[in-house]
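A further point concerns the way the authors explain their paired sequence and structure data. For illustration, here is how one protein appears when written out as sequence plus structure tokens:
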Amino acid sequence: MQFQLEGDIASSEAHGNGNVNDTFLLFCENGDDLNRYTLQRINHEVFKNPEGLMDNFSRVTKHLQGKMADEKSERQCLCVIPAKDGRSFHRESNGNYWRVTKFVDGGRSFEVPENTKQAYEAAKAFGEFQSKLADLPGEPLIDTIPDFHNTRMRFESFRSSVDNDQANRGTEVTDLVEFAFGREDLSDKIKGENFPVRVVHNDTKLNNVLLHKTSGEGMCVVDLDTVMPGCALHDFGDLVRTAACSALEDEIDLEKVRFQPEVFGAIVEGYLESAGDMLEPSEIEHLALAPQVITYELGLRFLADYLDGDLYFKVKRPGHNLHRARAQFKLLSSMEEHFGEMKEIVRDCSSLKAFA
């Protein structure tokens, strides 16, 4: 093993269900102690600059560790285990990049929240994550995936996939293509250049925050590969997309897919509690719209990948990306129906925050 682990590896197992990287849980025996680590292969087809990514990763985790130590916080953050050569990663001769972090004990992740408290805690944790990184020193982080949340660019890429139809699947999805083209205006509703540039997570799915198994409080934000300069609204919108939906993002039965306003209210409350002092009025004003934009964007990406022949996202069954796209567009339709209510929730919560 090429990393500075405490103990000898006794066993390992596949871990998690990420769409991009390969993840394993390592069990290391060190005398009577059993230490656990998370081993990941960084997908260098997606992340073109793995060494730059790991520089981001290391800077962010060290900054958060310092903040938490100063505050004597019970929150945790990921801790990078150095390779034997002292670097934050190991590169194999075949070009694969690997990293190891300490396993965070005592936490649990959820695909969808079991109650509004979990949604509130997740939002509070992600908002705190943004706030703590607002004063990250040094040069700006690199873009690990340039234009990651450039919705206009995603739309144009989708249009190209429709035109090329390289997997000959276009005739199956004419309804979805029509739905997507009919909402092209969402591509320009939240442009990064119109809002403050912040250090953001960029992949705030509910399962990327660990909640304490006993207290239920937000415990640790994970999956930091896409932490880079960006727009806070994209983080907020993506959490709503996954947490305020009644079903998984790849649900086949669309009758089960609907937006949940009560969960949205809990997310707004938790997010404003931890990040509200950082946000500018223009950001708060767009909180209700952000979930629509990010849901639309991901639906475009899933559908484009399906038309391209499933080249980007991992698929676990035939038509997986198609199921994902249909679920996202169904959720977007439900959000549109509740948009007025969403704006009222943001207005009420931000007013309460202002007078707190």
